[in-house]
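Task: sequence in, structure out. Protein: NB-ARC domain-containing protein.
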Amino acid sequence: MDAKKSFQIGVLEHEEAWHFFKKIIGDGVESSDFLPIATEVAKKCGGLPIALRTLATSLRNKPQFVWEDALRQLSKPSSSNFKGVPATVYSTIEWSFDRLQSEDHKQTFLLCSLMGHNAPLELLLLFAMGLGLFHGVNTVEETRNRLLTVVSDLKASCLLLDGNTNKQFDMHDLISDVAMSIASRGNSVFVLRYKHDSNDWPDDETVKECDKISCFGMSELPDQLKCPKLTFLGMGSKDPWMKIPTNFFKETKNLKVLYLLGMNLSSLPSISLLGNLRALCLRNCVLGDMALFGELKNLEILNIINSDIEMLPEEIGQLTKLK
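Result:
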């Protein structure tokens, strides 16, 4: 989960934007009956290449009634006041999201938006397995194949990008912002990245309904995380000595996926209360006595990378569901 990087975003003039749009949907649109509709749809992108590419890719080879419906929806006033995202961009990305072919695609896309730039596909796989994202798959290999298929479809829709390597994926900043806005509807997702002010941690009322929380760069943590509905928690600190409070997990008993980056877990008794935890991913963490991990009876995935382990206790043998 790398820090955010910036992509250059230039606004194209009208003719240049239309040429860019037409290049994706095909020159045949010039002689089609819905040329006027296509030009109006292109105008809705406000000259922004990411909006033009996303929308053109979604509409390519679609019949006229789909174009007409798209224009109708894009002409509605945007319900978003999301800071930093132009309304035209928000509408086009939201429209593309709404047209994704399955709930698998939608949930994977929203999960990807929590993972930052050049995120590892293998980590996404662990998250998907822990959350039980795909129904009807039973093995790691089946889940991997389904995930790679969905990721490929999202790339074809221009909602995801290739990463620096073939083992990573990426997402444009604006698309990520819109995805997080969509995911945050109803306060079900809270995202905080690369902050250093402890006051940025939300109050209990804000997070109590959250289903997913992704917080990286925190300088302090609350004594207890009061999120009874929480299923996913990704958390990291740039301070390798920052400890998680003793009772931090006392009221997160529904948690299914826990991803910790650069945290000190030398003493964390409340982790034994996470009886529903299915995936535990630890990277660059300081680990003490791991005997309490043996209490995580439903754990299917234990992924530990670049972490300081004092000892691997025999209690790990009690985790009979590990895959």
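Confidence is low (pLDDT under 50) at residues 2-9, 195-199.
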